[in-house]
Amino acid sequence: MNALNIVILAAGKGTRMYSDKPKVLHALAGKPLVQHILDRAVELKAEQVCVVYGHGGDAVPQAMSSYGANFVIQEPQLGTGHAVQQAMPHLEDNSRTLVLYGDVPLTQTQTLQQMQQAGEGLVLLTVNLDNPTGYGRIVRNAQGAIQCIVEEKDANNEQRKITEVNTGILLAPTKKLREWLSKLGNNNAQGEYYLTDIVAMAVADGIEVRSTQPAQRWEVEGINNKSQLATLERVWQQTLANKLMAQGVTLADPERLDVRGNLTCGRDVEIDVGCIFEGEVKLGDRVRVGAYSIIRNASIEQGTQIAAYSHIDSSEVGANCHIGPYARLRPGTKLAEDAHVGNFVEIKNSEIGKGSKANHLSYIGDSTVGSRVNIGAGTITCNYDGANKFRTIIEDDAFIGSDTQLVAPVRVGKGATIGAGSTITKDAPDNELTLSRSKQITINGWKRPQKVKK
Ligand code: UD1
Ligand code: CA
Description:
42% of the residues are buried. The protein has a 22-stranded parallel β-sheet that branches. It has a seven-stranded mixed β-sheet with strand order 5-4-1-6-10-7-11, with helices on both faces. It is elongated, with a radius of gyration of 31 Å. It is α/β, with parallel strands linked by helices. The termini are far apart. The protein folds into two domains: 3-220, Spore Coat Polysaccharide Biosynthesis Protein SpsA, Chain A (Alpha-Beta Complex); 343-454, UDP N-Acetylglucosamine Acyltransferase, domain 1 (3 Solenoid). The structure holds uridine-diphosphate-N-acetylglucosamine and calcium ion. Uridine-diphosphate-N-acetylglucosamine (UD1) is lined by residues 9-12, 52, 74, 77-80, 82-83, 101, 103, 135-136, 149, 151, 165-168, 194-196, 222. Uridine-diphosphate-N-acetylglucosamine binds next to strand 1, helix 3 and strand 10.
């Protein structure tokens, strides 16, 4: 089969978004609309990808620069046919060209593969609508063969009754496409160069024109305003939720889950309401995630329980840990199995060993914590002197009393105990009690200050 090119039309202004950002850079499921389509191009192993953009300066090419695509500007915008023409210099004749849309983000790879398999000629993706108003109509002859597409504004009354409409997505032999586009005129109701006019040209050239249909209607729905964006977001989230449930994941409410990336789950995973998963997240067998937790780019091993309102970012959590409620694991956190991290504990760029606990109100940053360590309430690692960051080492079986400040760089030895309320600035030896605390005194007969009478 011939190589595949993909042309993504993304030059429309998006006036109804009422935004300074180009329409195709607005996010669905956490990524720009156009990126959804660029990801399709990767899955389809497209040889050449060409994005036709128009508004927002270089915002689109800049945002999508990591994709090996060509970006061509269409200025002025004289119609869909004119838009595809801008891409043609980048496309080789001996190939097929698939036209997709930057504001139609959810066209599925399978649907596009089906188009590739439908025929060697011109292939259109069409849908039947109860209300076809506004769309180009697919005109067929008595034998059911496609003859042309007529735009709503150019259609007669008979043609307007046709319910099969053009989604805009089509696949064409590149050499022919180039020929047809060069012959386009703009003598129509809108004075535009219509891509759809190539259909009648193909018929005249004796090139077979076929059609396929997407499995779901939402695959071809476009976005013109924030309301359509929100609607399609919900459709997509429901689809992802259904997929997870089909794999056995228990969702307290499939309508209150947001996945902005890839969520992979083991067996018997349970997710309570309002959780958000971003980037690559892996949940092992029997992991439970409490309500309103936010987890980004993290792996959570089997049996770990995450209580409500916990935030986990770029972290690795071992098996059978207890996290939260209200815990915050920041980038670079690694918890070994059986670790406990309780409410209002923040951990950053630190390793916490097996069975260690920090259950209340602590900050642990740039630290290496051994196994079976107990970190008392209110412990703070002072890792920053205002200019540089330093590490804190806490060895196995240490016990850090409540309200301790560990001023890094500092080491607490194996089995060491730190007395509550200490400010530790020097290394604490193994197996000894270390504390820094002024002696408790009582001032007999001391009186509280009295309010001065005026
Ligand atoms: C187009 C189709 C119509 C189809 C409908 C589906 C044509 C002539 N008509 O109509 O048959 O039913 O889509 O939604 O193709 N664009 C550019 N440059 C331009 C013009 C458009 O990049 O100069 C892009 C827009 O950003 C948009 C897409 O092409 O993403 C469709 O353009 P639009 O003007 O909305 O076409 P329709 O009139 O809806
Ligand atoms: Ca449109």
